[in-house]
Specification:
7 strands, 4-stranded antiparallel sheet, 3-stranded antiparallel sheet, single chain, alpha+beta, RRM_PARP14_2, Nucleotide-bd_a/b_plait_sf, Alpha-Beta Plaits, PAR14 polymerase
Amino acid sequence: DSAEASPSVVFENIERCSPKCLEMLLENISGLTVDADFTIELIPEINVAVATFLKNIDTKELVEKCSQHKRVREFNMTAWLLESTQSIKAENLPESISSDYLTVYFESTRNGGGPVEDVQLFPEENSAIITFCDHKGNS
């Protein structure tokens, strides 16, 4: 299995588990520490949280542990690996934003970016689709 597992795990149906509770639950299941070993981003609009592991761990195994964990099941949460993507949508952009600015911004490693292949601006929506180069390389 040469494909790298995603470092991010999605947790769905999180409304019955507070953010602090989710942090402690993940610490208990993974044996890791929030902030030092993983971060959690809440997306309350769709009742989801995304845990991103900073340490190289077997996220497939973690998803399996979560699906069998008593507390996760009591909260009716589900967990799965976040698929990697080459494109993202940036919203609520300033009207004067340029594709060059977005390219440089999203290529900044400080912002967690990487090489950008294309930027499509949608001025009427104040949004853009940013497509990154394939990091795996097909050479």
